[in-house]
Every structure is written in C-alpha cells, then in structure tokens.
Amino acid sequence: MIYKIRMNKDDYFKISNKIISSNLSINDEEVTFEIEGGSYNILKRTNYEFKVMESLKSKILRFFSRYGLLITGVMLLLSILYMNIYRVNRIEFNRDTPINADIEYRLKSSFKRLFCFDFCSVNYKDFSKDMQRTYFEYPYINVYTKNNVVHVYIANIDEEDYTIDAPIEGDIVAKKDGIVDIFYVYSGKNMVSKNKFVRKGDILIQGNRSVRGLVMATTYDKVEVSINKNERIEQITEDTSTYYNLSLFNMNFSLGKKKEFDLFQKQDQLVFNIFDFISLKKIAEQKKNAIINTYSKEEALKRAQKEIEEDFEDHKLNSLEKILAITNTKMEETEEAYTFTFIVKKYESIGTIGLKE
Questions:
Q1: Nearest CA-CA partner of 137 in 155, 124, 151, 163
Q2: Which of 240, 225, 328, 330 lies closest to 286, judged by CA?
Q3: Which tens digits make up the pLDDT trace of 249-291?
Q4: Which pLDDT score is estimated for 81?
Q5: CA-CA distance, 111 to 241, in Å (whole number)?
Q6: Element (H, E) at 39
Q7: Per-residue pLDDT, 158
Q8: Of 119, 272, 307, 340, which residue has the fewest beta carbons closer than 10 angstroms?
Q9: Helix (H, G, I), strand (E, B), or coil: what is residue 9?
Q10: Exposure string for 322-347, b = 16+ CB within 10 A, e = fewer
Q11: DSSP H helix total and E strand total for the chain
Q12: CA–CA distance, 4 with 276 (Å, rounded to integer)
C-alpha cells in the first residue's frame, strides 16, 4: 500500500536516509512525499510528527464513493445486455405443420426462468440438426434466434431451394399398408417401385450409414366418429370492448376498460415495450354467445365427414397429402349421439424411422 505523507522539512531530511520515498514536493517548511508500507512502519516508530494525507485504500474508497453508483449502473446495464442475448420472448414458426407443437415443447423444456423472463442457451445449430433427424419427412428445418424471438423455419416438400443435412442412421420403413406412388430418395438405397404394395414394417429406403427420403402411397383406414345430437358452440358477435393494458414490472393495469364480457375473443397489439419491464398493449375483446346446435342424422353425417377432413389437414406432413374418398359403411344411434364408421382413402407419406439395432 502507498501512503501520501506531509511533515516538517527538517524532520524529513533527518530520517530520509532510513526510508524510501517518491514524488517529493517541498512547500516552504513542509514536504509532501509517498512511501510504501515498509517505510511507513519505520516512520511510525520515530518520534517525528507527520500526517497521512492519502493512502491507496483511501484513494480506492474515494474513487468508489465518487463513481460507485455509476460503476454499479454500468455493470448492471452490461449484465442486462448480456442476459438479453439469451432472453426469449416467444417462438415463431414460418408455417403451420403437425410438428410445430412438439418442436415448441422441446424448446420450452430447455428454458430457464429468471424473475419474470425466459432464457435459453440451446445450441440452435445442433438443435436444428436433431429436428431434421427426427422429422426426416421435411426437406429442411432450421431453428435460430433474432431479436429475442426463436424462429423455426420448416421447408415445404414443394419448395425447390432447400438444403438436406444430418441424415438418419437406420432405415425408413412403412408405418402402415399402402400402394406406393412416388418416392424421393435423398440418401440410402431405394427398396420400392411405383404401384408396389407394401405392408406395415416393410423397408422402403435402406440406409448404409445414413438414410433420408419420402415415400407417398395410397392408403385405406377404417375410422369411427361419434357426433353428439346436441352441441354447444360459441359464436363471435360484433360487440367489442377496446382498452389498454399497462404492465409495470409484471403488474398489469387496465386503462379505459368500460365493458366486461363473460365470453370473449381477445386480440392484443403491442404499442411499446422497454426490456419487458414496462410495456403497453392495445386490447380488443369481442363478445361471444353460447349457442346449442341440434343435429339430425344427415347433419351429423356431414359433421363427421368434416371432422375427418379437418383432422387430416391438421396432421398433414406435406402439401402432397390429400383425402381421395370418404365412404360411410355403418351408422349406430343412441339417445345422445350418432356413431358413423367410414373407410377413408388417402394419399399420404407412409415412411417412418426404423433404427438399426
């Protein structure tokens, strides 16, 4: 430690040969100089009077007392900026696919919650490759982050420009019976031909070290659907309530809200957001009415067919897939519902992963 000392000039020169001093300054009858710890201990053992003006410790204390708040603020800001790199506001997909929910679940499972924020340190490049291995039916899957939003890009089989990466180790096998129509073999050995009938478990594309491809086929499924004779649905009205939601440190305040609805559809628009500490949203709520629908047998049949079509659209793996025909083969009626049995002819992807043992 360095000490800044002031003492009488004559006294200093009497002991100057016993200590090591620096930065000597003479002002009339006084001298000012700096010494280290060893010389300071020697000076203390003498009978000469002196005054400690400033030490390294006092300099540090004075520095922090003057700039401590600024330094703390800068460090806090740098910490927030660093943490903000890994902060996640939301997950966005480029299009709706049946695998969106699973990918979103896998991402959210890796999130860490700190205060009221989510943080994710996933290696997005490795995660993208893992998703490509898992969902080989899609030509390309890329996951990346930008402006605290995790973007998931899932390529369509119809897209001409895509990259094929990270192929699967194993075989692509049939997940159900079908008649093969077209097939894309990106890597591996083709084991099928057009119009070939394959059974569940048959190898479609054989892998040596890796395999990647798509096989489309005509399939037939037996599907049973029950439709309740009475169904409660919610209908949106034109009655709207518009107000603002102010969020201060995770506390919410409604501004200008004049109506309360028991049932409503809610839409919000972000006005501004400051690091998620302070945000303002414009909220629009549309009132809903509950309606009871009663179905006849004919209406229930159409409803059942529509449910099959909607379920198929929700689970399509690519835009090539489609329903070719829906044939009703049986109908049963109870007091509460109608139950229909259909044969559904489809054109769909039938490949799944068959890992080598």
A1: 155
A2: 240
A3: 778 888 888 888 888 888 888 877 766 677 788 888 888 888 8
A4: 62
A5: 35
A6: helix 37-44
A7: 52
A8: 272
A9: helix
A10: ebeebeeeeeeeeeebbebebebebb
A11: 6, 23
A12: 49
- Dihedral class, residue 64 (left if φ above 0, else alpha if ψ from -120 to 50, else beta): alpha
Mapping DSSP to helix (H, G, I), strand (E, B) and coil, where does residue 7 land?
Answer: strand
* Residues comprising the chain, all counted: 357
Three-class SS state of 116:
coil
Contacts with 291 (C-beta within 8 Å, 6 or more apart), sequence order: 232, 233, 234, 235
**From the centroid of its chain, how far is CA 158?**
27
Cα-to-chain-centroid distance, residue 340: 41
Kind and range of the H or E run holding 207: none
CA distance 7 to 332: 111
Beta sheet of 141-146, edge-to-edge order = 90-93, 149-154, 141-146
pTM: 0.47
Distances from the Cα of 136 to the Cα of 86, 187, 205, 268, 319, angstroms: 28, 11, 12, 36, 15
User: The tokens of 159 are what?
Assistant: 């897209």
Q: Are 101 and 152 in contact (CB under 8 A)?
A: no
Write out the H or E segment, with its range, that includes residue 291: strand 278-294
Across the 357 residues of the chain, what is the mean pLDDT of every consecutive 10-residue run? 84 88 86 86 87 68 70 70 73 88 89 77 86 76 86 69 46 91 84 91 83 88 93 83 82 82 84 73 87 89 94 86 92 94 93 68
- Token pair of 164 as six digits: 């094929």
SS3 string, 123-191, reads CHHHHHHHHHHHCCCCCCEEEEEECCEEEEEECCCCCCCCCCCCCECCEEEECCCEEEEEEEEEECEEC
Pairing of strands 90-93, 149-154: parallel
